[in-house]
Amino acid sequence: MATRYTDDHAKSGLDFTFPEIETWPNQFPGYEILVDDPEFTSVCPKTGLPDFGIVTLRYTPRERCLELKSYKEYLFCYRNLGIFQENVVNQVLEDVVKACDPVWAVVKGDFRPRGGISTTIEARWPRPKLEAAEPSK
Predict the structure, then answer these.
(1) At a CB cut-off of 8 Å and minimum separation 6, what does 87 contact?
(2) Residues acting as catalytic residues
């Protein structure tokens, strides 16, 4: 059986040059910030159909906070980008961590149904330590 999704599909969008997210100096310790984008859109790299969802970011800032307009403009870059939903969530997490080095962060993508299936993806920082998987038999 021929593979319908290729490695190129899986990597699609990850070679995009995303803009840096601006930050500003945090003034207080030990609190949580929740930011959501209830109108997030991207594009399936295989079908070219739009993906709609809610992307939520929760984090505790260390020394820097994300500047919200900059973060919003960053998320706009996904609007016409062919990228899998799983890659969206993980790329946003990586770029947030790069920008502000939070104590911890969680990015959640709650993608609306298309063809009867919805998807929820969550990525966390720091990344959990994974144990080596047993080889398949």
Answers:
(1) 10, 12, 13, 14
(2) 44, 51
